[in-house]
Amino acid sequence: MLKTTATLAFLIVALPAAAQSVSGTVTKVDEAQGKLTINHGPIKNLDMDGMTMVFKAGDAAMLKGLKAGEKIKFDADRVNGQLTVTKLQKSK
């Protein structure tokens, strides 16, 4: 039992912070480069304050029909060294 508890405690500490959905507003979409610019709130798992910045789209399909000015909720993470939107949903 003690070994299981110690292992579980190690895993909780060792695992990176899970991505959490962040609210933002799209300011630019660059389908040709597979990127989008988002004005967003703090992104805790990346230890990032709210700001406007460029992200790579994890999947080019995310950018289809997306326009500047749209409100979104998204998850972001560091993928192969690049800040990447891993999940995106238009807000209502």
Quick summary of this structure?
The chain has 1 helix and 5 strands, in the order H-E-E-E-E-E. The chain is mainly beta and about 90 residues long. A hairpin with a 4-residue loop joins strand 1 and strand 2.
Description of the molecule:
This protein is mainly beta and 92 residues long. It is built from one helix and five strands. The protein has a single domain, classed as OB fold (Dihydrolipoamide Acetyltransferase, E2P) (Beta Barrel). It has one helix at residues 2-14, and strands at residues 22-30, 35-40, 51-57, 71-79, 82-90. Strands 1-2-3-5-4 form a five-stranded mixed β-barrel. The longest helix is centred in the N-terminal third of the chain and has 13 residues, at 2-14.
Counting DSSP H or I runs of 4 or more residues, the number of helices is 1
SSE arrangement, N to C: HEEEEE
Radius of gyration: 16 Å
Major β-sheet strand ordering? 1-2-3-5-4
**CATH class call:** Mainly Beta
Q: How many domains is the backbone divided into?
A: 1
Unreliable residue stretches: 4-15
- By secondary-structure content and strand pairing, the structural class works out as mainly beta
Give the number of DSSP strands.
5
